[in-house]
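Issue 218. Parser rejects a valid record. Input:
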Amino acid sequence: MKSESTYHYQFGAIVKITLRDGKISDEEKTFLSHLATIMEIPKEEYDHIMQNYITYPLEPTTTYNERLGSMYTLTKLISDDKTISGEQQTFWLERMAKAIGFTPGNVKYIVAKSLAVIEKRIDQETYKEEIKNINK
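Output the parser choked on:
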């Protein structure tokens, strides 16, 4: 493989999370393929990542702000993807939220609020403030 796209390692981590049990459903395959397109991952790079996903590190975010930044990016990517909606968006975002370190008890609330505020086309800092004040 010659070069790596901007989201190479992020996409590798998402693939690793998705294929954590070594199996992939048709729905997961479709989602990953579509996500690769949105993230501008070339086919050669996509194939390489899919074949070598186990080698990609999952670097946990160490701070709440980092998790919020990752969640902002993921929510924007998934909400901008018009091929998935509703329950599918929620399913993927909850899965990713758990993987990046949000507590399982808060995931549903964070995902619901994330989807609601991202529709307003707000910037990342405003998003973070909205999520931090979720219970206020």
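Fixed in the parser; the record now loads. The chain is about 65% helix and 0% strand.
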